[in-house]
Amino acid sequence: MARILAEEGFDVVAQARNSVELVGLVRRDPPDVVITDLRMPPGFADEGIEAAAEIRSFAPQVGLMLLSQYVEVHHALRLMEEFDGAVGYLLKDRVSDLGAFAIDVRRVAGGEVVTDAELVSRLVGRRRERDPLAELTHREREVLSLMAQGLTNAALSEELVLSPKTIEGYVRSVFTKLGLEQSEREHRQVQAVLQFLRWQ
């Protein structure tokens, strides 16, 4: 991982063998981004996410990118519910696309939320009663699905081959139908993504 990051132009300032060491290193010299496995020694349970939560408590400016071998929906939801931006959740096999991985790390460093596309696709088929997304059109659901992967409005415009103004209209409609008021402007995209992940 350190070699991959160095090849992509990152400065790797430290490496940790376990969650306790990771927290200590960040406390001494906070980096722009922490990249960690969700499961770490010694127990290989959820040490990575617990370390991330501790880091966020004393260094809220540090971006947190968590990697996992498998899609674990409850962990992904926890990340987005408890961590206000600058957080990512990716499957380890995504690291093989070095360019895309580097972009995702930089997005997390910039304060964005990055969600693995596999997680989103796993949730697409799920159905629950009283679905708050029921009022969304097919295109609005498509826009929200891509938002859940972390795409910006500009990226949505390129992906869907639609004008920026049209994308803005769809995003505004999604916010309205989900009851996300203008006063929540700074967090509406995160809140919309959370509703998508909970109810898809």
Automatic annotation (TrEMBL):
InterPro entries reported for this sequence: CheY-like_superfamily, NreC/VraR/RcsB-like_REC, Sig_transdc_resp-reg_C-effctor, Sig_transdc_resp-reg_receiver, Tscrpt_reg_LuxR_C, WalR-like
Modified-residue entries (4-aspartylphosphate), positions: 37
Signal peptide residue numbers: none
Database matches in CDD domains: LuxR_C_like, REC_NarL-like
UniProt keyword terms in alphabetical order: DNA-binding, Phosphoprotein, Transcription, Transcription regulation
Keyword Transcription: yes
Highest taxon in the source lineage: Bacteria
Response regulatory domain residues: 1-107
Gene3D superfamilies noted in UniProt: 3.40.50.2300
Domain HTH luxR-type residue range list: 129-199
Protein known as: Response regulator transcription factor
Organism: Streptomyces ureilyticus
Lineage: Bacteria, Bacillati, Actinomycetota, Actinomycetes, Kitasatosporales
